[in-house]
Amino acid sequence: MNDTTKPITLHARPRGADRHQYLTQTNAGTPAGELLRRYWQPVALVASLPPGSPPQPIRIMGEDLVLFRDDQNRVGLIDRKCAHRCTDLALGRVEDGGIRCPYHGWLFDVQGRCLDQPAEASPTAKHRIQMKSYPLHEAAGALWAYLGPGEPPLFPHYPALLGGTAHCYTTRWLGECNWLQASEGNIDPVHTSYLHQLELSDAQMKARWGVFANQARPELSIEDTRFGVRLYTRRKIEGTDRCSMRITNFVMPNACAVGGFEGYLGEGGLTMLWDVPIDDERHWRWEFIYHRSGALDTAALEQQYQAEKEEGDRMWRRKDSLYSQNRDAMKREEYLGLGQCFSVHDIAITQSQGVVHQQKDEHLSSSDIAIVRARRMLDEAVETVQAGGDPRGVVRQPQDNDFRDMVVVTGELPVDTPRETYCAQYAADASLFAPQPVAPRDGVAA
Q: Is the pLDDT of residue 191 over 60?
């Protein structure tokens, strides 16, 4: 159950040139912190908490919690401090239907209720003890938590989260900077032509992934959706009467839906990213890479990602050594010189902005229209929460939990085709992102 008995004192939002800077602060009681707590957030990989595993410390938005799987296979997320004398429950024993504090033996279940006080004289004193606890949901290989007050909203049926592990590769990275600058990097459509540019020799790959090399000045436009902002990025293809069109989405409040592995596997792929604050100076970058065919080469993905990581899902590349940038590779096949993993590109470049990017130092331009709109939308959502309402994208009714309109596609079309027409044909195709049956592999049933 959520701890809703204590009143929340919200901090005032600043005005003037830095009026969006408050969005970088996400502790409980801050405007942005209360906003982010109204949505389900990923907190751990399911694979990191198998039966019999030790308790797992979790820090999210400045809160220190402990995640555990009890001896009846139930999963709980509760306050890391024991309610008795504030002992660290990450040191606790998982037994007898809960987690037991090693200091005096108090036992708590997955809902934070005290089950046992073995040294206490009163047999009923335990009933007055209630630890802070949060609801959990399992989807797409991750455990998700709702940290807000009251009844949790429905878990959103985003296409990338519906296919299970057969259709989705899930991973995360430690980002050593504030969540907001990382999130804004995901909805910057121009950087793909520069930061992620690679030399492609295969003609088919060049046709499909050409958007990452086309440096033509893009025609950018946006529109509000019920879940966030839709981005249209149109680039002229030189020497033709056609253009490339890339449709991506900002998903309230700290996620996005962008191109997946359709470059290799054809339409039906997308990637969703969540930048979840650990505190105001670090975040987790969650990646849910999806393709409806179930043909993702997860072994190859794991190999590529692990080659760039060290223990704790942290990049081995360090800022103080300029992330081991390869200047020779920059002359040949890599624009940035940090290898071919886009996640590494994104993390390194947003960390280079500073631990907390200072908006007063930036000079926004016409290519930043999505970032400007996203900041205003977050600002509007904060006002909605402070007025007691549900912010944009929160789903309460089952009939509203259909997100086939979260269109993600990169393709070519005649230059005179309206963007709305192009988008509508995908939104109308309910099967485009519906998972296909996965064929058995190596004689093993899927």
A: yes
Name residues whose C-beta falls within 8 Å of residue 371's C-beta, 6 or more positions apart in sequence: 184, 187, 188, 364
Q: How far is CA 168 from CA 136, 265, 351, in A?
A: 20, 13, 27
Amino acid at 193: S
Alpha-carbon radius of gyration of the chain = 23
Beta strands in 73-227 (DSSP E): 75-79, 93-95, 98-100, 107-108, 114-116, 136-139, 142-146, 168-175, 219-224
Alpha helices (runs of H) in 44-202, residue ranges in sequence order: 179-186
DSSP lists the bridge partners of residue 94 as 99
User: Tens digits of per-residue pLDDT, 261-283?
Assistant: 766 788 888 999 999 999 999 99
State residue 446's pLDDT score.
33
Mean pLDDT over residues 35-46, rounded?
Answer: 98
Q: Check residue 204 and give its pLDDT.
A: 46
**Nearest C-alpha neighbor of 148 from the set 76, 250, 245, 61:** 61
State pLDDT tens for residues 211-222. 555 666 889 999
Asked if 360 contacts 17 with a C-beta cutoff of 8 angstroms, the reply is yes
What would the two tokens of residue 139 be? 């989807």
Residue 213 near residue 197 (C-beta atoms within 8 A): yes
Alpha-carbon gap, residue 218 to 367, rounded angstroms: 8
